[in-house]
Design goal:
By secondary structure, the protein is mainly alpha-helical. 64% of the residues lie in helices and 0% in strands.
Length: 236
């Protein structure tokens, strides 16, 4: 089996014994890439959609530390977070469409960087810079209108100061808290601590009210009725 080339040094160590048979082979020839064909709008749109599809398979890795063997995907999280952002924004008098769209796009760089949980972030010194570079490269070649809009959403999300960004960020925490409650219902783990930590980060009045209600449901035992919402309509 031919080994994978990992650089010029490795190439020389591999090519040495085969020098006579491969004397004409040059490093530049082996590593030369074909130029990419020009891409139209439709091609670029499909490339973005295909890349975004990776989020359906990338796991939210932090749950592994809580003992969850098969955790939710990034896309699972982003969908419900966006829906919560829409609700929060309508209650807070913000633009629900902008808040929800912020939720749709905020984790897109994870197609190229995977999900960086809190443990990984401890050792990833320039994570914010690398995320910014991934976002910039992902937007290359897109129609200028979309490019500017999504770029502004990223900037707004990072700053976290507008009503829409605050709603989106609260939705991010609320979705994680709700997922922790669902995992807690499925199996006992440290998820309750995650529920607590996420509800403490809420900043909007509506977000705090929802967080408090979620804690009440869990404490009162009414959570079972909410979790089994399907039973009244279930028919054999």
């Amino acid at each position: 089996m031919v080994p994978i080339l990992r650089g010029r040094k490795y190439y020389k160590s591999f090519i040495g014994p085969c020098q006579n048979e491969m004397s004409a082979l040059r490093w530049e020839d082996m590593t030369k890439q074909e130029p990419r064909p020009s891409q139209g709008k439709a091609d670029r749109a499909w490339l973005l959609a295909i890349e975004a599809g990776l989020l359906k398979r990338i796991k939210r890795t932090g749950w592994w530390y809580a003992g969850i063997k098969d955790p939710e995907s990034v896309a699972d999280h982003s969908l419900r977070m966006s829906q919560l952002a829409f609700y929060l924004a309508t209650e807070e008098g913000a633009d629900p469409f902008r808040a929800a769209t912020m939720g749709v796009f905020h984790d897109l760089p994870e197609t190229r960087m995977s999900d960086a949980n809190a443990v990984v972030k401890r050792y990833w010194e320039h994570l914010a810079d690398d995320e910014a570079r991934a976002r910039e490269e992902q937007l290359e070649g897109l129609p200028e209108g979309m490019k500017k809009t999504v770029a502004s959403l990223y900037q707004e999300w990072e700053a976290g100061t507008t009503p829409e960004a605050r709603c989106a960020r609260d939705a991010d925490y609320l979705e994680c808290a709700l997922q922790a409650a669902e995992y807690l219902w499925q199996e006992k783990s440290v998820c309750l601590e995650w529920l607590d930590s996420n509800t403490k980060k809420l900043t909007t009045a509506t977000g705090k009210a929802l967080g408090a209600r979620l804690r009440e449901l869990l404490a009162s035992g009414d959570w079972e009725q909410f979790r089994n919402w399907w039973k009244p309509i279930y028919r054999r």
